[in-house]
Specification:
By secondary structure, the chain is an alpha+beta fold. Helix content is 43%, strand content 14%.
Length: 248
């Protein structure tokens, strides 16, 4: 092999480092100078990846990763290591680093607080449950068990992936509330579509459970449906109590 071929092969195999980018474009320097909030999602991910692939900057590779999941960080956070590796330039080690970073972020958001959360409004319910539902591709129906001061005792998952609300049985909803001697509960589920508008089945289910609760002495305070914010829909949740959909 000639010396020219050696030189060519060496250059083509060399990864594109952040340090090789123009100084004013380097994500690390921009973060240090302007703060993390000034960086785009792809630039923050580029700092984590450190190196790109042949002929492409690490920021370009980071854009590819985010684009693979339709620029939806929730989908990237829920993706498997194998799925992340499908992006050209992302090997197993980088995929593991990405997965680790998002897992740490999720644990931070779910970290238990020292004080018992008080749920006295639909807004507080949405704030508590939003991160639990983020990235979920199936509906989950939860029952929040409350003490007499509206403090959260426990979050119970009743069903997963069940769209037909007629199959949500009162015995499953109230079983643990009876064991805990709760006098009040809040129902909550997500709409993976993003639209929190309740279906007719959601409304009828709520009315049935509210009536059942009155019989056994456990008040259903509300049923909160969690969706996703958009430019046209700034509020990502809907309270059936606020919409007067709790009883006939």
């Amino acid at each position: 092999m000639t010396s020219w071929e050696n030189e060519k092969n060496s250059d083509s195999d060399k990864p594109y480092l952040i340090a090789e980018m123009p100084a004013d474009e380097r994500p690390r320097e921009r973060l240090s100078r302007c703060g993390a909030e000034s960086l785009s999602d792809s630039e923050l991910l580029a700092i984590l990846l450190r190196t790109g692939k042949t002929g492409r900057s690490v920021v370009d590779v980071a854009r590819d990763v985010i684009g693979k999941f339709e620029s939806n960080l929730s989908r990237l956070a829920e993706a498997s290591i194998t799925e992340i590796q499908q992006v050209p330039g992302i090997g197993k080690a980088k995929a593991i680093e990405i997965k680790s970073a998002f897992t740490l972020a999720k644990r931070l958001s779910n970290e238990e607080k020292t004080d018992v959360p008080r749920l006295e409004s639909p807004h507080q319910v949405a704030s508590l449950m939003r991160e639990k539902f983020r990235g979920k591709q199936q509906e989950e129906f939860h029952v929040l068990l409350l003490d007499t001061k509206h403090g959260l005792l426990r979050d119970e998952v009743v069903t997963v992936g069940l769209v037909d609300r007629s199959q949500v049985h009162a015995r499953e909803v109230f079983r643990n509330a009876i064991k805990e001697s709760c006098s009040r509960i809040i129902l909550c589920h997500n709409h993976p579509s993003g639209d929190p508008t309740p279906s007719e089945q959601d409304i009828q289910c709520t009315k049935n459970l509210t009536a059942a609760g009155e019989i056994i002495g456990i008040q259903v305070l509300d049923h909160v449906v969690i969706g996703q914010r958009t430019n046209q829909r700034p509020r990502d949740y809907l309270s059936l109590r606020e919409e007067n959909m709790m009883s006939s």
